[in-house]
Amino acid sequence: MPEVIFNGSDGRLEGRYVHGEGPTSPLAVILHPHPLHGGTMNNRIVYSLFQMYVRRGFSVLRFNFRGVGRSQGSFDHGQGELRDAAAALDWMQLHNPNAAGVWVAGFGFGAWIAMQLLMRRPEVVGFISAGLPANIYDFGFLAPCPSSGLIVHGERDVVTPVESVHKLVNKLSQQRGITIDFDLIEGADHSFSQHMDHFNGTCEHYMDRRMNRIPGEALLTAR
Fold first, then answer.
1. Which CATH superfamily is domain 3-215 in?
2. Is-above-0.90 flag for pTM?
């Protein structure tokens, strides 16, 4: 799995990248949980999502936010990390100019950044958010949410109560032309510790359904 170093807005960023199978392979950027709470690109949920997209022929990048691992800079409370995510997508598009659409995925803090990124980049056609911290951060910027996606949450998540996520999902689901799939994994904690098989199966089933909805490459840009 090739290591890559690319330029962010405030220094170099460290990542791992796998190139897709064809000249128009879609892109996926995977964002890790909170840097001040041990989050890195090697988090097992981030790694699992990374491998899921690799198996489906995507060009996939996961990377360390500023101040994590070999990435330069220091924690910036989300503003700098959003710039990091935009720089990561810019780097991928530079190397994949004919990509058939972009997906973003994230866990915890990374899911918050991913949702902000999709609001700013119209080429993002889908998302997967795990452990979405709906009670910690303001998601009012999702007005309206521009892409359909999947939100996965643990029933026993003590970081973010299920009620907070339900409220956000209900709000997003009222938008015309947008479908928000929500899977509440029974008995799972914030990190899906004993439920990774269920988590992986949910995400894989969702991606396969989205990619088979419309024949041909149009699947990858369907919202």
1. Alpha/Beta hydrolase fold, catalytic domain (3.40.50.1820)
2. yes
C-alpha triplet 49, 153, 42: angle, nearest 5°: 35
| Helices assigned H by DSSP within 43-108 | 44-55, 79-95
* Per-residue model confidence as pLDDT tens for the chain (223 residues): 699 999 999 999 999 999 998 899 999 999 999 999 999 999 999 999 999 999 999 999 999 999 999 999 999 999 999 999 999 999 999 999 999 999 999 999 999 999 999 999 999 999 999 999 999 999 999 988 999 999 999 999 999 999 999 999 999 998 889 999 999 999 999 999 999 999 999 999 999 999 985 344 444 444 4
Where along the chain do its domains lie?
Answer: 3-215
**Alpha carbons 205 and 210: distance in angstroms, whole number:** 9
What's the rounded Cα separation, in Å, for the pair 105 and 103? 7
Sheet holding 11-18, edge to edge: 3-8, 11-18, 59-63, 27-31, 102-107, 124-130, 149-154, 180-185
47 forms beta bridges with: none
Q: Are 68 and 50 in contact (CB under 8 A)?
A: no
